[in-house]
Amino acid sequence: MEPNWATILSNKKIAEQTYMMELQADTSTVTAPGQFINIRLDGFYLRRPMSIADWTEESITIIYLVVGGGTKSMSGFHAGTNLDILIGLGNGFDITKAEGKRIVLIGGSLGVAPLIGLARKLKEKAEKVSAVIGFGEKSLVFGSDILRRYTDSLFITTVDGSVGKKGLVTAAIDETLYDYYFTCGNEYMLRAIHSLKLEGQLSFEARMGCGFGACMGCSCRTLTGYKRICMEGPIMLSSDISYTDS
How many CA atoms lie within 13 A of 20 on its CB side? Predict the structure, then answer.
């Protein structure tokens, strides 16, 4: 896969250790919310995969959390910096499967990021959409103002109760109110959401070597065989996933 060059338009802190970066780039390969990019960083061997939070015909927006040396270096990048990226990776959410249904978007921490572009696309189709987003505490909350523009209702949960309902995102979900979900978050949250008696689509995270299916490093077992999270994922149908201990 050929790399592309993107130019940073802005890079700003939006919550504790959380940054939003807008990049000018060729977005012709971005076809669905939930896809991602892979960024090459000088001094680091592996590229860094980042969910696309939203995009236009000329730019993409990513949201990232500073958790190590790579993302720490990114937080210091300034407007005008050029980045070597692979863009439009992964399969993205299939919103046609939720047409006419009562939809809930469920995001945990950084998993809120890809739900922004998804909410916008659903809003354009006039679908009825609610969102539940969860964080550890108030200082980590982001994306709520944007999501309120695209959803009919928004609920926030925090583990310590400093904002919204106290507890995990599942504490704010009434299964009787929804028919279909889209979700992104850590493995523990995905397991909890998968246990709900609802259909849906889950966005999985994985350590990736290449990001475009060549190295097989992010393969995972599903009910229909092994799939690469970077190619056949990161979005998978709830009906294709089995948690043996859930």
Answer: 16
